[in-house]
Structures are given as C-alpha cells and as structure tokens.
Amino acid sequence: MALIPEILYIDAALLVIDKPAGLLSLPDGHDPTKPHLRSVLEPQAGRLWIVHRLDRETSGVMVLARSEEAHRELNRQFSDRGVSKIYHTLVSGVPAWDEIRADVPLRSEVGRRRRTVADRGKGKEAITQFRVLERFTHCALLEAQPKTGRRHQVWAHLYHLDHPILSDPLYGTGKRASMIDRLALQAYSLTIQHPQTGERLVFEAQYPQDFVTALQLLRT
C-alpha cells in the first residue's frame, strides 16, 4: 500500500505535510525507484523543493517549498535557527529528571555505521531541551526541542543520556520494542515564518495510529 502524506497546509509558497513513517524524504541512493516525498506529492502539487528532512522511520510535520524564492527563505530560517521544532518520543528507561538541557557537542558520520556521537573535543555545538511528558514502568514519553540542527541530534543526545529511543536501530539495542516496531519518534510541531508574508505559522501533526496504540498499551 502506498504511503501518502496528509496535507496540513498549502498555498503558493508552502506545502506542509504529515509524513507517514516508512516514506523516504529523499530518493534512495541505491534504488531511485523507491517512493519518496517528491515522487508521491509532485503529481498533484507541482514542483517541490525539499527544505529539511525526516528519517524514513520518523513520522510527523515537514515543510516543503513550492518556489525557489520560498526555498531560499526557508533555508535561511533553518540556517539562522529561526525555526522551532518539537518532537515527541518514547524512550527506554524512566528519567530521574523532569527537564534537562543536553548540550554536549556532537560529531557526525562516525564509524562504519556513520553515527552521530558525543565528542567534547571535536564535536560541534548541539543543544536539545528535554521534558518528561509521561512515565511508565520501563519507559517514558518525552518532548524534545532541538535548539541546533545537527544530524540525528535528538537520537544522539538521548543515547548519551542513557535513554535511547524505543526501536532505534542505530543508537538503541537493535531490537524492536514490543509495543512499536519502528523508531518511536514523532515530529510533533513546527513553527516557521511564512516566506512571503512573515506571518508566524505553527503546524502540528497528531500521533499516528502505531504511536497511539503504543501509548494505550503502556497505559494499561
């Protein structure tokens, strides 16, 4: 069955979607025939420019540009940290803290698996604010607000805090959690300025069914 993103907002400059888990943001380098965002959206929406990306197993809010001018302006906002992103995630273990600021520098593309790792000597500045939303017996639901934009920043900071994301194949145990069989990470909200009007826009994506089911199981 084809994975079709839900359109949350569209105008002449922007297309904001709720990306389903399993859909690539960019074409696969080994198999360009695999569906990706532009291949499934452009037949209806016209030419699109990718502004940022979510990993294949991550679901939630993404913004795409519908013109070169909007693409340049949105790129500037992301580069200048003018965009606010909030993720919700289920993590292994129950944090002893209610809120914590992770500010350990991160270094990307490390080792054969090209992971992002904490490295106070050679890493680049990386800051993520975490807040516990709900605690369960052996795991927790967290809110993550990255203040910088390093690759796999939320994943790497949670791994550094000894609370890897459930079903994380790269930083976790390598095993799928019983309640959710993909990376338990949801891009919950995105705040940008409209590239033409400057209006502040906030977009949210509700939890997909597998995330809802996982929470229901944890709450029983």
List the SSEs and their pairings.
Layout: E1 6-10, E2 14-19, H1 37-45, E3 49-50, E4 59-65, H2 68-79, E5 84-92, E6 99-102, E7 106-110, E8 115-118, E9 128-135, E10 139-146, H3 153-160, E11 185-193, E12 200-204, H4 209-219
Parallel strand pairs: 4-11
Antiparallel strand pairs: 1-2, 2-4, 3-4, 5-10, 5-11, 6-9, 7-8, 9-10, 11-12
E-strand count: 12
Rounded to an integer, what's the Rg over CA atoms?
17 Å
**Largest sheet features:** 10 strands, mixed
Distance separating the two termini: 31 Å
User: How confident is the prediction overall: mean pLDDT?
Assistant: 94
Order of helices and strands: EEHEEHEEEEEEHEEH
Strand content: 25-35%
What's the CATH class label?
A: Alpha Beta
**Tally of structural domains:** 1
SS element count, helices: 4
| CATH second-level architecture | 2-Layer Sandwich
Q: Helix coverage percent of residues?
A: 10-25%
CATH topology label: Pseudouridine synthase
Q: CATH homologous superfamily - what is it?
A: Pseudouridine synthase
Low-pLDDT residue intervals, each spanning 5 or more residues: none
Helix/strand class: alpha+beta
Shape: globular
